[in-house]
Amino acid sequence: MPQYKYTVAMSCSGCSNAVNRALNKLEGVEKVDIDLEKQLVIVDASVPQEKVLETITKTGKAVTPIA
Amino acid sequence: MPQYKYTVAMSCSGCSNAVNRALNKLEGVEKVDIDLEKQLVIVDASVPQEKVLETITKTGKAVTPIA
């Protein structure tokens, strides 16, 4: 299954919980790992990268895919 | 223009900025007022209440419309 990585601006556990919740609502997302200190979000998902990116964008957080 | 009010769980300014950003991306939203301390989000918008609620839900924050 593809794994995608993103840098996401998150400043508290409320921020990271929100990103986690939003991603887990997306069908095809199997696993979400978030490192708040490193501003890192790692997603295992059977959907295209763009779909995952769009879901994170809709949380209102600044997000950058890591190549 | 209709005005909608919501209680939204926000714990830092990163949280409230994210909600603000997400709402301002929604077409038809004219004004967003957020009170972080009161967990209050007030939206002036020319779109149905459900559309605004859906947009807030997609931020991953817990949200309750205020009647």
TrEMBL record, chains A, B:
Signal peptide: none annotated. It comes from the Eukaryota. The keyword rRNA processing does not apply. GO terms for cellular component: cytosol. Gene3D superfamilies: 3.30.70.100. Keywords: Chaperone, Copper, Copper transport, Ion transport, Metal-binding, Transport. Residues 1-64 form the HMA domain. One of its GO terms (molecular function) is copper chaperone activity. This is HMA domain-containing protein.
